[in-house]
Design brief:
There is one protein chain. The chain is of the alpha+beta class. It has 4 domains: 1-156, Methyltransferase, Cobalt-precorrin-4 Transmethylase, Domain 2, CATH 3.30.950; 160-228, no CATH class; 239-410, Heat Shock Protein 90; 413-494, Arc Repressor Mutant, subunit A (Orthogonal Bundle), CATH 1.10.10.10. It is built from 15 helices and 21 strands. The chain has helices spanning 7-11, 29-41, 71-85, 147-154, 176-186, 199-206, 220-226, 261-275, 298-311, 359-367, 377-388, 412-424, 432-443, 448-454, 462-473; strands at 21-24, 49-53, 57-58, 61-62, 95-101, 104-111, 120-122, 131-137, 140-143, 209-210, 217-218, 239-244, 252-257, 279-282, 291-294, 320-324, 328-333, 394-396, 404-409, 477-479, 492-494. The protein has a 6-stranded mixed β-sheet with strand order 13-12-16-17-19-18. Strand 3 and strand 4 form a beta hairpin. Helix 8 packs antiparallel against helix 9, helix 9 packs antiparallel against helix 11 (377-388) and helix 12 runs antiparallel to helix 13. The longest helix is centred in the first third of the chain and has 15 residues, at 71-85. InterPro entries: Fic-like_C (IPR049514), RecG_C_sf (IPR038475), Schlafen_AlbA_2_dom (IPR007421), Schlafen_AlbA_2_dom_sf (IPR038461). Pfam families: Fic-like_C, HATPase_c_4, SLFN_AlbA_2. Residues 17-144 form the Schlafen AlbA-2 domain. This is Putative transcriptional regulator with HTH domain. It comes from Methanomethylovorans hollandica (strain DSM 15978 / NBRC 107637 / DMS1).
Length: 505
């Protein structure tokens, strides 16, 4: 049976972090059993991992073309693997799938994070019965020692919420159509089998149900992604957009987005892109190319929103909230970041954390290419803001890490233009040319020739002179050198946006 992932993207590390993939050129039972134990313990709540047998590695990356396995090897390895996994304490059985990749047979061992961690593995498959806990440290499988072992033991009762069974729902609450749509979008071969196999087997292969056949129940993650109304089970499973109409916050509009998590994210991104984000194009005299920038770059908002959905706790009945002000956007979620992140180091560009609150939610979002899950969120937000010419982001939490707030501040020139447009709307009788002059001269004082060039005129026409004169006489434009109106150095600047406000006549 096929895996619920795109195998090509998996092997090339496009949907799963390299630290969660271990390549084995050949069959090495003892080493592979240790890695199965480590992935099942899922020390960092990464969501387990994958062991790919038949592909070598160099410095953590796959070596192509693959060495491959012989057909007769694959059957023998699967039988041997079953016996080996019975030696784990507690017994744990991964999902094993032979695949044909680049004209070679390879074996993929998928090891989701275990429900009954911690697991122990025999140190040796020889006669000795010494056991040890194994964990993943970066891209290596190592024995847990000292504090690591104590922390692993303390995780026994702390199964991530998204991976827990929901006893208040049934497998019938999972939507077959949504599951097939997901498999189609990620390009999984499991889609071709979905209609032919029992629904319960499909859900088990998706890792969204748990329990014996007589009492199989959906996991919380299954309800969050593959139920039409997850807010029925989790009151905080929604995204609220609040748009404030004034600085005080007394006037606002609110929109609530519900449905499966993927649908929520896509709908909110579409709403923000179509209704909030604005591209500004400013022509520069003596330059062929115009300067383009957005009030907020889409990539920064997308990353901030998906991170909020990914890392919030669905045990807390608070939605992800997007607040839109005249000069900033805020994305708020509960609770705050996991250690080592705290309120004092959150703005440190070099700080990182590889602990995840929701291990399966993260995997599904990665497969949908909505997040990378490689601890790159902060960097991506900063980079997209910098490339847009926007101010640095602000990340906040409190001493108790009870919330996480991302603040994206508006591009300074976009703010000027927005303020000018708001003031221009109050003026009766302005022509389009005059409104454009005010907007451009608010950003930068300009000469008549520069104004003409910005407006696309070949020269300073009589109509343009008339428009400027009327703006000057109505107090909407000022000279930069009032005492020398005819100076060659003379420029014109708008009297709005931080200078003087336009007033209705």
């Amino acid at each position: 049976m096929s895996l619920p992932v795109n195998v090509k993207e998996l092997i090339n590390g496009h949907t799963v972090e390299w630290e969660r993939i271990e390549f084995k050129n050949g069959w090495n039972p003892e080493s592979i059993l240790h890695s199965i134990c480590a992935f099942a313990n899922d020390f960092n709540n990464w969501g387990g991992g994958y062991i790919i047998v038949g592909i070598g590695e160099k410095e953590g990356l796959p070596v192509f073309p693959p060495s491959g396995l012989e057909i007769e090897q694959i059957d023998r390895i699967q039988k041997e693997l079953h016996g080996m996994c019975n030696k784990l304490y507690l017994a744990y059985f991964p999902v094993v799938e032979p695949v044909y990749f680049q004209k070679k047979h390879v074996l993929i061992i998928w090891v989701p994070g275990g429900q009954n961690r911690p697991y122990k593995s025999p140190i040796s498959l020889g006669k000795k019965n010494d056991y040890a806990y194994y964990i993943r440290r970066f891209s290596k499988t190592v024995k847990a020692k000292g504090d690591e072992e104590r922390e692993l033991l303390s995780m026994t009762a702390s199964l991530p919420f998204d991976d827990r069974i929901n006893h208040n729902a049934s497998i019938d609450d999972l939507n077959f159509t949504l599951i097939k749509s997901h498999l189609k979008e990620i390009g999984s071969d499991l889609l071709t089998e979905a209609d032919r196999i029992p629904f319960i087997d499909l859900c088990r292969r998706m890792n969204i149900v748990e329990g014996p056949d007589e009492y199989v129940k959906p996991k919380n993650v299954g309800l969050l992604f593959f139920n039409d109304e997850p807010h029925r089970y989790f009151k905080g499973a929604q995204i609220d957009i609040v748009e404030f109409k004034d600085e005080v916050g007394d006037s606002f509009t609110e929109r609530i987005f519900t449905g499966p998590l993927r649908q929520q994210i896509v709908s909110v991104l579409a709403y923000i892109k179509n209704n909030i984000l604005v591209e500004n194009i400013r022509k520069v005299p003596d330059r062929a190319e115009a300067i383009r920038f957005f009030n907020y770059p889409y990539q920064a908002f997308e990353e901030a929103l998906v991170n909020a959905v990914y890392h919030k706790s669905y045990e807390i009945n608070e939605p992800v909230e997007v607040r839109i002000y005249s000069d900033k956007m805020e994305i708020l979620s509960y609770p705050g970041p996991l250690p080592p992140l705290n309120k004092d180091n959150l703005m440190n560009e070099n700080i990182s954390s590889r602990r995840y609150r929701n291990r399966i939610i993260g995997d599904l979002l990665k497969e949908l290419h909505l997040t990378e899950g490689r601890n790159t969120g902060f960097r991506k937000i900063r980079k997209s803001l910098m490339m847009n010419g926007s101010p640095e982001p602000v990340f906040r939490t409190d001493d108790e890490r009870s919330y996480f707030l991302t603040v994206l501040r508006i591009h300074p020139e976009a703010q000027v233009e927005a303020q000018v447009e708001a003031q221009v709307e109050k003026v009766i009788g302005l022509t389009d040319t005059q409104a454009k002059i005010l907007s451009e001269c608010a950003i930068k004082p300009m000469s008549k020739r520069e104004i003409a060039e910005i407006l696309g005129h070949s020269n300073v026409s009589g109509n343009l002179k008339k428009a400027i004169t009327e703006l000057l006489s109505n107090g909407l434009l000022d000279y930069t050198i009032p005492e020398k109106p005819r100076s060659r150095l003379q420029r014109y600047q708008t009297t709005v946006s931080g200078r003087k406000l336009i007033k209705k006549d």
